[in-house]
Amino acid sequence: MKLTGREKSELIGEGVITVILLLLLNLSIFVILDSALKNNPGLSSAVFMAKRSIHIGTYQLWSYQNLFIVLMGIADVWVVYWRLERRYKQMQLRHIIAELHYIADGHFDHRIPFNLKGDHQRVVDSVNALVDSVIHSMDEERAIKQSKDDLITNVSHDIRTPLTSIMGYLRLIEDHQYKDEDDILKYTHTAYLKSHQMKSLVDDLFEYTKVSQSDPHLEINQIHVNSMLEQLAASFELEASQKGMEITSTCEPENLVMTGDAEKLGRLFNNLIINGLKYGFGGKNIFLNAHQIGDEVIFEVANDGAKIPESAQSQLFERFYRVESSRSKETGGTGLGLAIAQSIVEMHHGTIDVHSTDERTSFIIQLPLKYEARTK
Known about the structure:
Blueprint: H1 5-39, H2 41-53, E1 55-56, E2 59-60, H3 64-104, H4 119-174, H5 181-211, E3 220-224, H6 225-235, H7 237-242, E4 246-252, E5 257-261, H8 262-279, E6 285-293, E7 296-303, H9 310-313, H10 325-331, H11 337-347, E8 351-356, E9 361-368
Parallel strand pairs: 4-6
Antiparallel strand pairs: 1-2, 3-5, 6-7, 7-9, 8-9
Helix pairs in contact: 1-2, 1-3, 4-5, 5-11, 8-11
């Protein structure tokens, strides 16, 4: 920390005034002591005998005057240092307060740059850490607000599109703009499909809001991993065969047991399997694999369909993101399935990632073998 010219003058003035006061104090004490020796013969005699006893040849090592000067000199140096050090720390504190005012005026990217010693450095570190924490909270708040705005915008857009179609076809029927009963059936069927698309979006949105809560409720129980994967494979066997695909499952070891919310984990793997069935274009297989490594269970949901573009892989878990919007509309995708999957994984304190090549697209999920609630 650099002192200003005024502060340096203050320190010099403080030192000069302190020295003058100490000299006056020393002189007063010396006069009082000398007067006491002159007025007290017994004390004066004792001092004289002490002076005689400490000689080297004819050289007198000390006198009470010399002793007084040495002791007072040591005391004076300590007092001057203490006063200057105290005043310097006051100046440091003044600089810290000035920096705080500067930050409070809106310069939130500024940090106190001082490297001090002792308690003042701890104050500086604490202030900088506090400012970082506040800025982080503000950024999070802005991100949450932006996220809510984006959510409303996306939901409004995705609901408005099928709703407009439904209203349009119903208006045709209402205005009798049809030729025969076949036209009516075609219009109502299209309206039904669009309403089903809206329901799918609302259901996914409701599920996403549930799993994205800050304090979600989990029903923790034991899960036999091999049985869970076999049940998942069996439940999607018919749908996979209709798409010309085969779904298989493996688990090592076979008796692997973990703890977690079975319902939510079932939704997680349902979403990943549905994603593979919808978008694994040209693929013939869907693989459900699990194995244990240490105190973690590694799951893989993979397909041998078309590769996901590298530019899209980093955005797959964003809400409402679709790799190809036209294909998503055809398949009825809402863009929330993978966002829900990621939220469920995070609820279980795990991670999810995607790896995609020309031969295989894999979603890798790492979950703890034993779920443990964490306090915030």
